């Protein structure tokens, strides 16, 4: 069985920072892409950032320059450093792991509010 677990969410004031982490464990081999998605209340899930195995990264335009995705291949982990947070970043953040199968975590809630 494979588990994908996110952590690091919480309540932060506008302009603040949070670091999300995601760990994949179990019988999972040769992870290719790792990504973060988010779903705000009443909205569809949207892609936020992707990091491929080589380390190349891709970002949603609205988070470029504020969010940084990184990964630790040895630990099967991916992180999302979020700076200069805005109220519109409020959402449940989900981790997606692409191996032979696509795996999703259950999400971690990020609330940006004063």
How would you briefly describe this protein structure?
0% of the residues lie in helices and 54% in strands. With 114 residues, the protein is mainly β. The strands form 2 sheets. Strands 2, 4, 5, 6, 9, 10 and 11 form a 7-stranded mixed beta sheet that branches. Strands 1-3-8-7 form a 4-stranded antiparallel beta sheet, with no helix packed on it.
Can you tell me about this structure?
The chain is mainly β and about 110 residues long. Helix content is about 0%, strand content about 55%. The protein has no helices and eleven strands. A hairpin with a 5-residue loop joins strand 5 (about 45-50) and strand 6. The model has no long low-confidence stretch (mean pLDDT about 95).
Regions with pLDDT < 50 over 5+ consecutive residues? none
**Quaternary organisation of the protein chains:** single chain
Structural class: mainly beta
Cα end-to-end separation? 40 Å
Task: Give the DSSP E fraction (strand runs of 2 or more residues).
Answer: over 45%
Helical element count? Answer: 0
List how many beta strands DSSP finds: 11
What can be said about the biggest beta sheet? 7 strands, mixed
Mean pLDDT: 96
What key phrases describe this protein's structure?
mainly beta, 114 residues, 11 strands, 54% strand, four-stranded antiparallel beta sheet, 0% helix, seven-stranded mixed beta sheet, globular
Please write out the topology.
Elements: E1 2-7, E2 10-12, E3 18-26, E4 34-39, E5 46-51, E6 57-59, E7 67-72, E8 77-82, E9 91-98, E10 102-104, E11 108-112
Parallel strand pairs: 2-11
Antiparallel strand pairs: 1-3, 3-8, 4-5, 4-9, 5-6, 7-8, 9-10, 9-11
């Amino acid at each position: 069985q494979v588990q994908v677990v996110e952590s690091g969410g919480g309540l932060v004031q506008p302009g603040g920072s949070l670091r999300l982490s995601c760990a994949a464990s179990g019988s999972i081999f040769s992870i290719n892409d790792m990504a973060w998605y988010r779903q705000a209340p009443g909205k569809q899930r949207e892609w936020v950032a992707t990091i491929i195995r080589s380390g190349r990264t891709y970002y949603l335009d609205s988070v470029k320059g504020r969010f940084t995705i990184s990964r630790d291949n040895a630990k099967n982990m991916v992180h999302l450093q979020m700076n200069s947070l805005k109220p519109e970043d409020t959402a449940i953040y989900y981790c997606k792991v692409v191996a032979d199968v696509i795996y999703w975590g259950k999400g971690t809630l990020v609330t940006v509010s004063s």
